[in-house]
Amino acid sequence: MERELLAFGRRKLGPAVAPREIAFDQNLPKTRSGKVMRRLLRARELGLPAGDLSTLEGST
């Protein structure tokens, strides 16, 4: 699946801008309304502090 997605990206976007790797994660951080918290994913990737997690699903 990963190889197929990478090949699709290269065909549609071109090799210069296509992603080099794809990470699959079953436990994406989501808000209470079910939206993925892209801010938190970006912070994880860059090694930055997560910040306010009060809107994270499951937090009280």
Automatic annotation (TrEMBL):
Which SUPFAM superfamilies does the record match to this protein?
Answer: Acetyl-CoA synthetase-like (SSF56801)
Domain of life, source organism: Bacteria
Q: Which InterPro entries match?
A: AMP-bd_C (IPR025110), AMP-bd_C_sf (IPR045851)
Which Pfam families does the record match to this protein?
AMP-binding_C (PF13193)
AMP-binding enzyme C-terminal domain: from which residue to which, for each copy? 2-35
Output this protein's name. Answer: AMP-binding enzyme C-terminal domain-containing protein
